[in-house]
Amino acid sequence: MGHLALREGEKMLVSKDVAYKTKTSMDLYPKPYQGKFYVTTQRVAFRTMGGLPPEFEYELSEIESFSVGMLKTIHLNMKDSGAHTLTGMFNKSLIQGLLDVGIKQV
User: What's residue 2's pLDDT?
Assistant: First the structure.
């Protein structure tokens, strides 16, 4: 899986295998991409194996909120009106990590 290099003073809170459900320019319909989701004291990021797209990284200040759907699917709601959907088993630690860094759950 891709790795997230920590910045000076940044601490890793949660690192979990997930699937990021999105549509790329190569896809007709959204599909899951396997990778690792990170929650740190400064940002969140998704990295795929080998660093291939799609990947994302956002400062905590860019995230409006998150919601939890069926089967613990996590929807990150961005301040710029974008959204990202993550699925995976046992996402309780991710949910707690997002709450711990001050992202509100709606």
Answer: 62
- Tell me which of 91 and 37 has the higher pLDDT: 37
Comparing C-alpha atoms, which of 26, 22, 39 is closest to residue 95? 39
Whole-structure pTM value: 0.89
Nearest partner of 44 among 72, 76, 22, judged by Cα: 76
- HEC string of the chain equals CCCCCCCCCCCEEEEEEEEEEECCCCCCCCEEEEEEEEEECCEEEEEEHHHCCCCEEEEHHHEEEEEECHHHCEEEEECCCCEEEEECCCCHHHHHHHHHCCCEEC
